[in-house]
Amino acid sequence: MIRSRLTAQRLAFLFLLGCFFFNYPLLSVFNRGGDYFGLPPLYAWLMGSWLALIALMAWVVEGKGD
Amino acid sequence: MLQSWVIVLASFFYLGILFAIAWYADRRADAGRSLIANPVVYALSLGVYCTTWTFYGSVGRAAASGIGFLPIYLGPTLLFALAGFILHKMIRVAKTNRITSIADFVASRYGKSQLLGGLVTVIAVVGVIPYIALQLKAVSNSFAILASYPDIVMPATAGAVPLFQDSALYVAMILAVFTILFGTRHLDATERHEGMVAAIAVESVVKLVAFLAVGVFVVWGMHDGISDIFSRAAVVPEVARRLTTADSPAAYGTWGTLVFLSLFASLLLPRQFQIAVVENVDESHLSRAVWMFPLYLFLINLFVLPVALAGMLHFPGSAVDADTFVLTLPMAYQQEALALFVYIGGLSAATGMVIVETIALSTMVCNDLVMPLLLRLPMLGLATRADLSGLLLEIRRWAIAIILGLGYLYFRVAGEAYALVSIGLISFAAVAQFAPVVIGGLFWKGGTRDGALAGLAAGFVLWTYTLLLPSFAKSGWLPDGFIAHGLFGIELLRPQHLFGLVGLDEITHCLVWSLLVNLGAYIGVSLQRAPNLREARQATLFVGGAEAAGIPAWRGGAGVTDLLPLAGRFLGSERAQEAFVRHARQRGLKGIEELPADTRLVNFAETLLAGAIGSASARVMVASVVTEEPLGIDEVMNILDEASQVRAYTRELEQKSLELTRATTELREANARLQQLDRMKDDFISTVTHELRTPLTSIRAFSEMLQEDPQIDLDQRVRFLGIIVSEAVRLSRLINQILDLAKLESGRAEWTVAAVDVAEVIREAAESLTVLFAEKRVTLELDACPAGFTVLADRDRLMQVLVNLLSNALKFVPADGGHVKVGAGALCVPGNPLRGQATVNEVRVSVTDNGPGIRAEDQEVIFDKFHQGAGTADVLTDKPQGTGLGLPISRQIIEYFNGRLWVESTPGAGARFVFTLPRQAGDNVAVLPGNTVPGGSWEHKKQTGGAP
Fold first, then answer.
1. Percentage of the residues of chain B whose pLDDT score is greater than 90
2. Potential cystine with B120: which of A8, B71, B103, B365 (Cβ 3.0-4.6 Å)?
3. Chain A CB contacts of B70 below 8 Å
4. In this predicted model, which residue has the larger pLDDT, B532 or B627?
5. Of B628, B632, B630, B629, whose CA–CA distance to B562 is shortest?
């Protein structure tokens, strides 16, 4: 449950992680040509890390961690 | 087959289904079996965030800037990661205070200020109208494009079409009617619309499926998968540029700005606040939405870039607007059904947004703008009108119509100047102005109404100047000279390069200035004064949950007879009656007539009214019937400080308890000491009595013998009388000594202190005892008693000590051959302050005898009262010779003069009594430090504080 302070803090940690994932300077690493599995690096990175972040958020709030 | 009438029919059919769903959900809600009390429905209804701006506009933005459309969706994801801190708190605060809109939230937070609620409403309406215009534009464009099938023709610009042929006008009108039907069927005290939420959740599913359908068709129907599109895009230079984003600090700055802008927007847009906070049924639903809503956003964005690239490849040049790729790509491949489905998806996105946004705005306009004004106009007599619930609904209906009318107006005037995405961002920047007062208000107690007003007003003015007015100017509505040259031709005032700030895009530029000034004014003005009573109370309610429980909002009472009609006027008497009955039942009362006229009832009524007319108006209305006692400032401050006071009390109590424990220990020790003293006193009295009885008994015995038997011969008689006399002497000496001791111990003894020559006293004492010594044939030797050592003492007392010691010695030495020696000297040992040693400079006097000596264990005991040395019994009378008080008295005297008295002895080898007295400075005998005056045989190791 989100009421738990621990869950709220875990989510806040994911917020910081997300801020790092979705911003400069990490973005500049992927902002180039070439491809990962047929996808442009920037697209692959953003969609991949976004999905991973959502999965982590689901794991934090739905998991039985508390 | 895609004639206009088919599209119109499909549209109305779809809207009809939505309405049926809403109607059914409302019925279920009335029956108490809510359809939307489900976390998945809550998460889906949050999808109202995705409007036509997402549905059509994302592809357009992707075509223009590649992945640059994505930050708008990353921000909300990050917001939901903060759900535990921000959203959860907002929902809880809103529920306890019956908050009905973002304007109500801000007004309520800063002391239920009507002015503040009105300002927020104005900003929200002005800020959101372009956004509504955008929806109208999208629907009318998509209709026009679809209706021209199979040709792909871009619709004419809005202004070019005569008013009554403009489909956007009809769209606006239909949406207005539809929204009025949805949102204002009846007045609900909680301002919740279950049917609307259910319909919005369905619309979210429809638009998602529609977009995914287009995505799947484009990726797998038109191409061989995603990598196929990307590899084709990579070879066309113009398209390949969209695979990366601009690699400059400004571009990354814009990116970051958009992430945080959308984070705030997804919380503060009136429709988002309505769905996420007001319509929330159960706060536990939030935890599912934390990942489900971001997942929804992820899915709806998954195919945006591939569709945009495919559109650019398929429609080279700019013949087809990228905003329409979602619709035109299926049309280009003759997918009629898919195209119609996409149109319906776009319609879903538009209607969802317009319905929720206008309902939220109409609530704000009605509660925070119109009602406060109407209630202030005495000529309307509204304050006394019996039933206002109909009027409230009427106002909201008109508000909805007017808001949509304004949206249409903006669309006609400015709609063509911008792409969809830019219009949306203007709205985002407007509602971002709420961020400081809302988030600050949730976590900072110091914010005041003035601060909030100043911050919002300053931010709004800057937003208008740097973003809204340029948008009017670019659409030709205003002369655009001031954009290039600044207001009044002042270069520094160029709205998009304010004060020479260049290198930022217009959104970032606007946000930098407006939020900076907003935040600065909010904090700066708030800090001008401490929050007043009402602000402080509301701050406690919003910021700290638990502490607020005990703070009464009203200090007066009003009865049911006043409050029920009041509530009835706004809610309708039936609903008001129901609510009061429920309240009475909650308090365990039988009916509403039993409700006491107390503050709790007033609070209940205020909260109930707040749901219908907003917290600020509710307060005014309730105040009209409540006879409020003046709120003493001290009193309220006391209440507010209560928590801290309780903490202080606890600390004080702890301290007190500690002190008490300490005192108890001390008392217990004192008591123990008293008991011991008591025991000692008892011992003393019994000893004294015993000691007094012994001589008395023998005096009496011998006197009786003399009295009874007159024939006793003379020798015998003389002997008896001798004993009687000596016993009487002993008795009187004993009594004198007891009196003496009592005087000494109680401190009542009289002292005559003067400089005394020790040698002289010794000589005198020795002389007074010469006869006694001679009688017992004991030699008394005065060994090395140099004259000149003076001490400060009472001469007679000192004499008493010496006589005592000498007669003691005399008592114990054997007759014939006994030897007593008196010695005196001085000792000087320099002290060492570093080691805590004081300088020793004293006179020592010793009395040495060659008696039997004293056993080590007796050497202290002999100084106790009534203790008598072993073997002192008179051979003849078998009585002890001394009183047992001489040594204790001597010790008391010596200690009174800061000296010490002790005994050194080896059993069988005599005893030596020694006393010391501090030497008076300045006597005429020089004693070298570390030395003793010759003559005394001192044992240095026995000296306290002695030299090494």
1. 18
2. B103
3. 46
4. B532
5. B628
Q: What is the pLDDT of residue B423?
A: 75
Rounded CA-CA distance B740/B743 in Å is: 5
CA gap B798, B776 in Å, rounded: 24
Considering just the CA atoms, what is the radius of gyration of chain A in Å? 15
Amino acid residing at B898: N
Taking 80 as the threshold, does the pLDDT of residue B214 lie above it?
A: yes
Rounded to two decimals, the ipTM of the complex is 0.94
Please state which of the ranges A23-37, B352-366, B453-467 shows the lowest mean pLDDT. A23-37
Q: How far apart are CA B201 and CA B355, in angstroms?
A: 13
The pLDDT tens digits for B647-698 are: 667 778 888 899 999 999 999 999 998 998 888 788 878 877 877 888 888 8
Residue B885, number of CB atoms within 10 A of its CB: 22
The pLDDT value recorded for residue B292 is 93
Cα–Cα dist B172/B560, whole Å:
45
> Token digits for B419?
């792409």
Integer Cα distance of B457 and B461 in angstroms: 6
Looking at residue B872, its pLDDT comes to: 44
3-state helix, strand, coil in chain A (%, to 5): 65, 5, 30
Instruction: State whether residue A21 is helix, strand or coil.
Output: helix
Rounded to an integer, the average pLDDT of B761-783 is 84
Q: Which of A8, A43, A58 sits opposite B84 (nearest CB)?
A: A8
Query: What six digits make up the tokens of B15?
Result: 């809207």
Q: Are the beta carbons of A54 and B298 separated by less than 8 Å?
A: yes
From residue B462, alpha-carbon distances to B353, B485, B493, B513, B763 in Å are: 27, 17, 11, 7, 111
- What pLDDT, on the 0 to 100 scale, is given for residue A22? 87
Contact between chains at B78 and A27 (C-beta distance less than 8 A): no
What distance in Å separates the CA atoms of residue B68 and residue A31, rounded to the nearest whole number?
Answer: 12
Residue carrying structure tokens 């207001």: B487
Q: Give the count of beta carbons closer than 10 Å to the beta carbon of residue B861.
A: 12
B124: tokens are: 């929200």
Tell me how far the alpha carbon of residue B673 is from its chain's centroid.
Answer: 49
Q: Each residue of B637-660: pLDDT tens digit? A: 555 455 555 666 777 888 889 999
Handedness of CA B489, B491, B497, B502 (dihedral sign): positive
Which value, in Å, is the radius of gyration of the alpha carbons in chain B? 54
3-state secondary structure of A3: coil
Residue of higher predicted confidence among B928 and B134: B134
**pLDDT given for residue B455 in this prediction:** 94
Residue of B253, B291, B302 with shortest CB distance to A57: B291
Interface touch A61/B288, C-beta < 8 Å: yes
Reported in sequence order, the residue ranges of B529-678 that DSSP labels E, i.e. its strands, are: 556-557, 627-628
CB B901 within 8 A of CB B914: yes
Is some CB atom of chain B closer than 8 A to the CB atom of A64? no
Is there a contact between B387 and B571 (Cβ–Cβ < 8 Å)? no
Q: How far apart are CA B505 and CA B254, in angstroms?
A: 7
Looking up tokens 């805590």 gives: B836
* AA identity, residue B238: E
Whether A11 sits inside 8 A of B74 (CB atoms) is no
Q: What is the total count of domains within chain A?
A: 1
CATH number for the domain running over B751-942: 3.30.565.10
What range defines the domain where residue A23 resides?
5-62
- Which homologous superfamily does the CATH classification assign to the domain defined by B4-447? Sodium/glucose cotransporter (1.20.1730.10)
- What pLDDT does residue B297 have? 94
Mean pLDDT, residues B433-439: 92
CATH T-level fold of B632-749: Helix Hairpins (1.10.287)
Those residues whose C-beta lies under 8 Å from the C-beta of residue B157, and which sit 6 or more positions away, are B416
In sequence order, the 6+-apart residues with CB closer than 8 A to the CB of B321 are B60, B154
